[in-house]
Structure formats: structure tokens, C-alpha cells
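Sample 3 of the quickstart, ligand JD8:
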Amino acid sequence: MLRIDVITIFPRLFEGWLSESLVGAARAHGLLDLRVHDLRQHAHDRHRSVDDSPYGGGPGMVMRPEPLVEAVEAVAGRKGAGRQAHVVLLSPQGRRLDQALLGELAARTHLVLVCGRYEGVDQRAVELAMDEEVSIGDYVLSGGEVPAMVVAEGVARLVPGVLGNAESVRSESFQAGLLEGPQYTRPPEFGGLSVPEVLRSGDHGAVARWRSEKAREVTRVRRPDLLGSMSREESS
Ligand code: JD8
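Result:
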């Protein structure tokens, strides 16, 4: 079973997410062993401080290395040859997350997701405890908690059994790497707009061809970068 440990100063941020999400359901069904740890448990002073002023001056605070390294080592052991866990720091400096990276992470047996806050993490903690840095995209967030949820959810979807049959069958049968075309449900007419006739025809072959055509079309218009060079030259 895939194990995911999350290290954060805001463990309660994960409570609602875990009680409502697919990840929470996977956990409840014993498909995923996800545990959230409070970094402050590894603080040593009586104020349980995990941050301090930056050397060299500047605004804000930096996460101290001792609690971070200790928290990682408590769940994963020391970095080096024998460590089984893959320790990921969510950070703007990280490798950009995409489906391929989610696939690599889902192939691990034990992930540790480390959430920074403040202005970031003391570089020695990065070097001494982390295996990899991952960013969820080029926009500014306030900390690594939401990115950790993004990674955990993306990874959990790749764990066998986590998705219901409907969704897993669909992801297998559908063309990987394309956007999906438009979708409709009842009523057949709404606000003067009708559901395309082919979807109501009962002709499964025609429906499949229509969906495939719409998927290519929306991908070409909105996200041409998702199409390989082959398809970009052949289609249009
Ligand atoms: C971790 C602290 C905030 C970052 C000053 C205030 C990921 N795609 C992403 N965007 N932002 C983050 C991220 C932001 C974080 C931390 C991740 C820890 N901050 C800091 C540096 C500049 N702000 C992220 N993954």
C-alpha cells in the first residue's frame, strides 16, 4: 500500500480535505496510508518555534532546519543509500508538476510531502533531508499545503482501486493527453440550446467518433501545446 506522510505547521488544513475527498475515501478503504504530522511536534524551545529571521536580512521569516530535518527523519529515516521513502519539498524552485511526474511519484512505495511556509526553507534542510523539489505551477502561493494536496490527489488517482469503475474505465478508453470535448445531460433543450443530435442517436460508434473529433478540436484551439508535433502537422 502506498504511504504518504505530510509534514506541515497547519495539520488542521488537511482535515476537511481528508473527510470529503477521494483521497479521504481511498484512505478509509485502506487503499492509501496517508498521515499528517505537525511540524511543531519537532520544535524544541518552549515557544515551539519553527521559523527565524533570514541571515543577510530581508523581509519575513525562514523555516529553521532542525525541526524540518528531525520531522523528515522521524518518518523517513536519514537521507542516503538505504532510505526507502522519497521526500518531496513543495517549493516554487521545484520541478513543475505534470501527469508524467505524478506517474513517477505514484510508482514509489513511500512519499513524504514537506510543506514550507513563510519565505521558504533553510537551504541546509533542503540539502540534508529532501530528495526532490516540486512546484505545482508558476503562480505565487503562501505555502506548500495546497500544493501537497494537489500532489496527493493526483497520485492517489493513479493508485489501483482508488477511482471508481466508471472513471478508471473512462481514463483507459479515452485518448490520453487530450482535453475533453463538451458534455451534456438532461434536459434535451435548455435556454434555447439543444443537445447535439448524435449524442441522443443511440449510435455508439458515431458517439465515439464525435467525442474524439471534439476532443481534438478543443485541444487544438485551447491547448495546441498538448498535441504532439505529428498530430499538429496532420490535423488543423
Ligand atoms: C511553498 C512558502 C511562499 C514562496 C515568497 C511568500 C509550490 N507553485 C507554487 N507556488 N507557490 C508555492 C509555494 C510557496 C511557498 C512555499 C510552496 C513556502 N511559500 C513564499 C517564495 C516567495 N512567498 C508553490 N509548490
